[in-house]
Amino acid sequence: MSRHRSEGSDGSDRSDGETTDPLRPADHVDGLPAASAGAFDGDGVTSPRLGLVEWLRWGWRQLTSMRTALVLLLLLAIAAVPGSIFPQRSADPNGVTQFRTDNPDLFPILDGISLFDVYTSPWFSAIYLLLFVSLIGCVIPRTKHHWKALRAQPPRTPARLGRLDDHRERVLTLPEGADTAAAAEEAIALAETQLRGARYRVQRYDARGSLSVSAERGYLRETGNLLFHIALVGVLIAVGVGGALTYTGQRAIVEGQSFANALTDYSSFNPGRFVNADNLAPYAISLDRFDLTYQPAGTVAAGQAGDFVAHVTTQLPGQEPQTGEVRVNHPLDIAGDRVYLMGNGYAPTITVRDAAGEVIFHDNVPFLPQDTNMTSLGVVKIADGLPEQLGLVGFFYPTAQPLTTEAFTSVYPDLIFPVLSLDVYSGDLGIDDGTPRSVYTLDTGDMTKLTGRETDLESIQLLPGQTTDLPNGLGTITFENAADPTANEVTDGTLESLSPDGDFGGSVKRFVSLSIHHDVGAPWVLLFAVLALSGLLLALFVPRRRMWVRVTPEAGALRIEYAALARGEDPQLAVAVDQLSARHGSAAAAALGAEDAESGPATEPAPTAEPGQTASDDPPSRPTSKVD
Amino acid sequence: MTEQLSLDDVSLLLVWTAIAIYAIAFVAYAIDLARRSAQAADAQDAVVRERELVGARGETIAQVRASEDAAAASLSARGRDRARPLWARIGTSLTWLGFLFHLGATVTRGIAAERVPWSNMYEFAMTGTLLIVAVYLGVLFRYDLRFLGAFITGLVAVLMGGATLFHVDVSPLSDPLKSIWLVIHVFVASLATALFALAFALSVLQLLQARRERKAAAAEVGLRTGPGFLRLVPSADNLESLAYRFAIIGFIFWTFTLIAGSIWANDAWGRYWGFDTKEVWTFVIWVLYAGYIHARATRGWRGTRSAWLSIIGFTAVMFNFTIVNMFFKGLHVYSGLT
Ligand code: HEM
What we know:
The complex is a heterodimer.
Chain A: H1 11-17, H2 52-63, H3 66-80, H4 82-85, H5 93-102, H6 106-112, H7 122-149, E1 166-173, H8 180-197, E2 201-207, E3 210-217, H9 219-245, E4 247-254, E5 258-260, E6 268-271, E7 284-294, E8 305-315, E9 322-327, E10 332-334, E11 337-347, E12 349-354, E13 359-364, E14 368-369, E15 376-382, E16 389-397, E17 400-402, E18 408-410, E19 419-427, E20 447-449, E21 460-462, E22 466-469, E23 475-479, E24 489-490, E25 509-518, H10 522-541, E26 545-554, E27 557-566, H11 573-592, E28 595-599, H12 611-614
Parallel strand pairs in A: 22-24
Antiparallel strand pairs in A: 1-27, 1-28, 2-3, 3-26, 4-6, 4-25, 5-7, 7-8, 8-9, 10-11, 11-25, 12-13, 12-23, 14-15, 15-16, 16-19, 17-18, 19-20, 19-21, 22-23, 26-27
Chain B: H1 7-51, H2 61-76, H3 86-113, H4 121-140, H5 149-165, H6 180-218, H7 236-268, H8 277-296, H9 304-327
Helix pairs in contact in B: 1-3, 1-5, 2-6, 3-4, 4-5, 4-6, 6-7, 6-9, 7-8, 8-9
The structure holds protoporphyrin IX containing FE (HEM).
């Protein structure tokens, strides 16, 4: 390994290097020792008297220090955890309601400290905002500095290369009568060419009877680091701005129905702050057919549904209708929106006639699935046409099986023995005063139960194609057979009248829940995330290092020194010096017809050698060995 | 059921065989540690007697440094230069053998299921541990990390044994899992986990070694400085930079996991990020390791403190995989357990 910490060991390098060194917060391990770091003390202790400006400056320096960044990162990690323990309103609103019911005393206290909205809570926001302020405060000066460094020359060659850890030396004995000055020039020029060829930026520094070349590479490391941190800011901004411009809306459509992309056609709609909901892209989607498969009974995952495909026809204004598919993992793209398949279920077609035989209700009513076998719950509300408002609530069982009590359960999700079981309520539906009510719940507070448990009449039970009487002579109700609308059989609507016969495939329509998303931020988030990742790769894997080659003419010979210094983690540094020394040494020897005698700390030129280990001047109390 | 062995039964059989082999490899590695640390102690004792410095049990800092330097040299030794301790070689051979069975188990499970074998908790554990062993064996070509052999084989044997408790029969994927991102995202996450595991082991050793160095430097005669096998382990500094190297590669994979997961979530659920429990933990782990990387660059945090962050990070990874999968509610229900 390169000894990160040993960089300061050669003091002479520091002053020369400052222009090209990456700028780091004062408490970075590469930073100057606390004593020389000016007003900032590594331990956060300040000099006693400070004016306002100094205080501000001090505060800013604290905020943009490595330690603050680190502490804020750790705080962020800790602060994120409660959101996985307590249900969050954003991800699991039902969980929050449940929690409130289960812990009525605890709830207000926890809610008071935003434990159900952790990620929008003041404390969580404070942490990440501070972190990003710190980040920006840290990155701006570094970017400026790096911008200059990118155009600066490599630093002056240190006077004593031998003091660097990664140092090799060889002596080329020149042929009799050779011009040492010219040979030195040739050797250093060769080094310059080789280093430049290895993508180093090079600069000659000749002095005091020796020629040297100073080379630096790996500026991309700092570029990568800055790119990474700046891209994180980009991610944050894209998430924030994107969220304000995003809308999502939900809508259930039954086979054969269609939906227009307008606010009024959504069952729920969540716009971001800057969304103009009156201005949605005008298009329509109709559901032609919904397909899915079930694992057959008797297999491991019997009844597991899959391969959901909603076959739709889309219509943009002024264009031909187009067919398309919405599948899980494969949303449909339309007019900049994405349409997702979020759920599906059965929508029994129900017709209600009054006592005179007049149709007063006819609709496909989506029933919400309650379990994996599609036991589904639904509500029918009949506001007009009868002396009193009527509400029907009950279950649909695609494959009904009687339980010991009069109830059913569904044992398979496909339509094998589909039964609709409803209870009838009459009274006030509570919708006349304009209070919005969910179509999936019936408020029976002001209603009288007419059938089912605790009444004299049994619940209504129907197979597709069956019709029965409503209680109190109100009229009739029909569960239409979607596959065969003409089928009509009158029953007494009780358990006994149901007998599983025939093929019920297609007898009940299906609906799908679509979720329509307009998210302009997502591609930007992805872009910045990918930029961050590439920055990270550069920052962590491009080695930033300096190399020096110095040629000193001696009587009939050239002494050539090679030395290197890592800026940051650089496991391959020793290998790189070895390679340079070997390549340059042999090339120079060949070019000059010289004899190569290696000396100095490196005893063998093999690239895997561990030169530092045998260095005799390393005191034994320091770890001298290297991992590489 | 049928009299014939199903492919999944074969797979399970191979799993158990692999576990048994890893367990024996663990024993071999443990014997190796005991023997070699005793040898190292004898060598040290010889030096001690020669210099008549300290009692039989104590170590001076010079001795510690000497043993660390020797360990560092053998750590990077290649090929023929490597020491050839018998029991460590038995351990490594057995690990290779176990790995082959393990690989066979994973592949047969994949064939039985007709898809990649990492889509429920059992399979994920099987593939994840396979990758831990693969990374360890791969790294052995570069560094002689056989002093971690006992840890790796022990950990993998225990995790695989645990995984069999989650065994579920092959069943078809649910729709959201039918995605190319299952293949990529989960695989890269397991790879990151494997690297974090190595970094974790090295960080633990780093802490022990730092303690040994401190005690020896305090130079109290006759003081025991820690478990004997530390004589086979390079200096805390060396361990730290090695741990760091594994951790940053792991971090990059984890970053990728996070991005790939978001792309998948955006396709499957219509949002790229929703602070679902699993997302929260993936994020927490990412931030913890970012903290670790920062700590390495922060004065006063390099060394022991940053090592603790690496340990906490891996603890969070394990927590995420076990407790969060099984007990936390969320959209990521793929443990296959009911
Ligand atoms: C969102 C918060 C942050 C995250 C996730 C983060 C993450 C990282 C990561 C992963 C690295 C290692 C990659 C590299 O060397 O480029 C790194 C390095 C670095 N970060 Fe941050 N960082 C954050 C905030 C900050 C802040 C606020 C500062 C300024 C105080 C900062 C200063 C640095 C510096 C100087 C390095 C280079 C370390 C070295 O020399 O090895 N970072 N950061």
